[in-house]
Design brief:
The chain has two helices and no strands. With about 50 residues, the chain is mainly alpha-helical. It has one domain. The longest helix is centred in the C-terminal third of the chain and has 21 residues.
Length: about 50
Amino acid sequence: MNLKPVHIQLESMQACEVLRIAMDDDRAGAMEFIKAVLAKKVEKALQRH
């Protein structure tokens, strides 16, 4: 995989979830969000170019 800087866009509910995870110090929620949302968005962004 060719790694390079990527820009991803979060829906408003996803941004809200990031803030909730940070405020609650929710480690399990953070890992789930990374797997379910962020990793997929990063993979898609890297495939486009």
